[in-house]
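Aim 2, interim progress. The first record below pairs a target sequence with its structure tokens.
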Amino acid sequence: MTDRTTYVALAGMRRRGWTDAMVRDLLGTPDVQGRDPRRWSLAPMRLYLLARVETLERTPEFTEAAALCRTRGAGAGVHAERRRAAVLAAVRAEPIEVPLLPGPELERRAVRHRHLLGARSPGPNPAGSLLRWQVSYLRHALARYEWLLDGLYGEIGRGEAERLLRRRLYEAIAAAYPRLAPECRRRIEVER
């Protein structure tokens, strides 16, 4: 059995500032390779001798590789920031067209939409509920604008872009239907 205090696993190497490519290029094959006794996994556990790791960390090759990784990481951050700015600019620039419906037709569609969603009762304030339902229906009708967020799955700026898009949609609904403006403002405040 090996003394685990003198070895470093790949997770420990990452905490020390190593990348997978640096481990592969500078350290090569692991000193010990086997199954992790603490968890079941098909992937072998790779351990590197701590003395060998510390020796390599003092070499100019390691310093150069670490600087190169930091430079690449900064470049990726700049690219992500450009992508975020481009999506935010697209969300700001996209004209939003709200469907204009007569009042009774909007109410009918909102009630039908609400029932399709499975809601039963209008609650304590039926008039207020109807306004909320109309805003919900219009917001659902404008879901087609969510294509603007494509390509930002879990990326930098996704939350900010979603909030901006929702705010713009509620502002467009309020502009098209002034009687729904208080409910739209309320939703913008709640989501802020």
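The second target in this work package is listed in the same format:
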Amino acid sequence: MSKTLVIIPTFNEALNIESIIGRVHDAQPTVHILVVDDNSPDGTGDIAKKLTSDERVHLMSRAGKEGLGAAYLAGFHWGIEQGYDVLVEMDADGSHQPEQLDRLLSAVDGGADLVLGSRWVHGGKVVNWPRYREWLSRGGNIYARIILGIPLQDATGGYRAFRRSTLEGLNLREVASQGYCFQIDLARRAVRAGFNVAEVPITFVERTRGESKMSNAIVVEALWRVTLWGLARIFGRR
């Protein structure tokens, strides 16, 4: 069995972190978890530190809030250094159901280099989302698919599994994007590099505890960066 690391970035997720770790290990007892905490003022890091008494749980404490992309990049580098074969992105709030992690890992075992948990392929869905959020996500993915030329239905989703070799081939030092844009960036890099990118259906469940990290700034950054990448692709600069 592949040595798997689930990376969970946190900022003010004290209400959720213990539950999500328990659910991961109920679903996949052999995987390890790395919590990457950005000095959460609500004590998330303190809770996670207590949970490291379980040798399957690890904590990376950072000095301040640096963003989702930076947290995942730090987690990727740590996981690669520790020799994990598969590295998984997962939100702390329960929106990415650990009970569906087997779908992603099975696709990796089947030969995929990167597996996206997709809300917008057949069998995927969202629960408790307002209509405008669905329109925003669907529209953003259609725009990214067209302007970037990537054959993906859900490039903005954050539930995904990478082979270590895939991450090593993506030149992560060049990645500076955050939020949805970070997810699109890694997906387009993987497609452009010729990796086998697969999508499996998931059910995305909107958080019930804690505050969403979604903001207008994240949406604006994604639109701006995706447009620039698309124009560069169209005019042959990258």
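Residues 38 and 62 are 5 Å apart (CA to CA). This observation will shape the mutagenesis plan for the next reporting period.
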